[in-house]
Amino acid sequence: MKIYWIHAQAPLRVLALVKHLGIEAELVRIDPVTGGLHTPEYKAINPNKKAPTLVDGEIVLFESAAIMAHLCIKAGSDMWPTENLEEQVEVLRWLTWNEGHWTPAVGPYYVEKIVKKTFNMGPPDVTVLEKSEKNCLKYAKVLDAHLAGKDFAAAGRLTVADFSLGSMARYWKEADMPFENFPNITRWLDGLEQIPAWKNPWPADEKVA
Ligand SMILES: N[C@@H](CCC(=O)N[C@@H](CS)C(=O)NCC(=O)O)C(=O)O
Known about the structure:
InterPro entries: Glutathione-S-Trfase_C-like, Glutathione-S-Trfase_C_sf, Glutathione_S-Trfase, Glutathione_S-Trfase_N, GST_C, Thioredoxin-like_sf. The chain is an alpha/beta fold.
């Protein structure tokens, strides 16, 4: 099994899961700056020209949520629930909310403050951040209320929903995401940091494709 990744938040979720569950996989690092996502070979497995991508025999998957579900099924992990289908629905709700609402809410902070720095793309555009605040606060309020009295987003335990929701938000301090008044979000993020594979998701010995 091969997992193609770049140093960014969607692959981060998958790499954290691989490490957390002790899954054997060849982790192939791609350099997006030198066009690694645009080669004919890579576009054949991920026409979006994004990472991550998983290749497991005949199975080729893009989208980190689907990849994480596949990995959990293979590893027999209930981080993607398959026994209790109501739990699966609950996890699915937060995975879809993440893509539809949370990513657009926190993504501008992540891109301007973290992605640009990681890939030498110039300084953050503060006007983007100013315009993003209202939407970020709107959805942070939703997540904070949901997390009141909870350590995890769904099913009362760690699931792939936490890894999806947390992968941009984990940078909230460096990225100036306005979470100061959302104590349940920051407590939940601090809790995730106690998980060794989440704290350090990146592979130690990686191969650059
Ligand atoms: N919804 C996709 C998002 C994939 C995605 O946007 N990946 C980013 C990294 S977080 C990427 O490859 N960006 C490179 C680019 O756009 O050139 C997933 O969850 O896998």
